[in-house]
Specification:
about 300 residues; mainly alpha; Glycerol uptake facilitator protein; globular
Length: about 300
């Protein structure tokens, strides 16, 4: 049986092809070479290592510092609620209005990310990677504390923000009308619908976290695009939605049972599942399969 003349592995270049390619490549000076290296996309192993190091830094921070940053993050997230309501109050009720009003949704995420505050489903994603690398009781303990502190701090922040806008006259009545509408939209779906929408929201936030190391100067654009998709898709995010529904609770339009039963229960777990299983665990598996996993 006659062997093929070209027996090299498919997809690999021969020595002649390498030589020909080298001859045709442009000659770069030192500065141009540095620019080329700077603009080169990060490979999955470099991205993974960046996320791992960020996760370790989060795990090393004192719980008190994380708590204050989480409260600040909960407060900041309220501005997504406010900006969307303001846009709705000043635009006609048309089919295209959501395309514009949902531009307010990324505001809180941008504030939190650029101001180095803490957000559940975002800052709680990176510390999972060090645990996947080294599954010890100590790392699990610190990871658990981090998750609880960030979640509780965020909720306290959203509660305080909801009180500031719901129990004061800081905004006009027409804006409060929109606050109410947005709040009821957050709890209008049945358990199953909210459940699956929360998976997609957690999925997108985790993807955003993994995209940011390679984003460089485009971080604002990446954050805006990914969170705008959550807003325009009416997907459920536990912290954004908490501000909206707690506004209803504090203004007497909904009960705490509604908040916990119709919103928190289906949203919290699915945000976590979407972020951890569909993104972080898969990216970890990719690196392990590639042989770049630290033992």
């Amino acid at each position: 049986m006659e062997r093929s003349k070209d027996s090299r592995p498919r997809g690999k270049l021969s020595e002649n092809e390498h030589a020909e390619q080298s001859e045709n490549m442009p000659v770069l000076d030192r500065v141009e070479e540095q620019h080329a290296e700077k603009e080169e996309s990060l490979n999955p192993y470099v991205t993974y290592e960046v996320i791992r190091r960020e996760g370790e830094k989060e795990l090393e921070r004192p719980a008190s510092a994380i708590a204050w940053a989480a409260i600040a993050g909960g407060l900041s997230m309220g501005f997504s609620f406010v900006v969307e309501a303001l846009l709705r109050a000043h635009l006609p009720d048309t089919e295209w209005r959501p395309l514009v009003t949902k531009l307010g949704y990324p505001v809180g995420f941008l504030i939190i990310s650029l101001a180095s505050q803490q957000l559940f489903t975002e800052n709680t994603i990176t510390p999972v990677v060090p645990f996947l690398v080294s599954r010890t009781r100590e790392i699990f303990r610190r990871l658990s504390i981090l998750w609880v502190v960030v979640f509780v701090g965020n909720i306290l922040g959203t509660l305080a923000f909801a009180a500031m806008i719901g129990l004061t006259s800081a905004f006009d009545p027409d804006v409060h009308t929109e606050f109410t509408s947005i709040g009821f939209e957050a709890i209008r779906n049945d358990f199953a619908t909210t459940f699956i929408r929360a998976v997609f929201a957690g999925w997108l936030i985790a993807l955003m976290v993994w995209m940011l190391p390679a984003a460089s100067s485009s971080k604002v654009a990446v954050i805006t695009l990914m969170t705008y998709m959550i807003g325009i898709g009416e997907l459920s995010h536990i912290i954004v939605g908490s501000t909206e529904v707690l506004y209803l609770v504090l203004t007497g339009q909904a009960s705490l049972a509604t908040y916990f039963g119709d919103f928190v229960a289906p949203t919290l777990l699915r945000n976590v599942v979407g972020g951890l299983l569909l993104v972080t665990a898969l990216n970890h598996a990719q690196v392990v399969a590639g042989g770049h996993h630290r033992k």
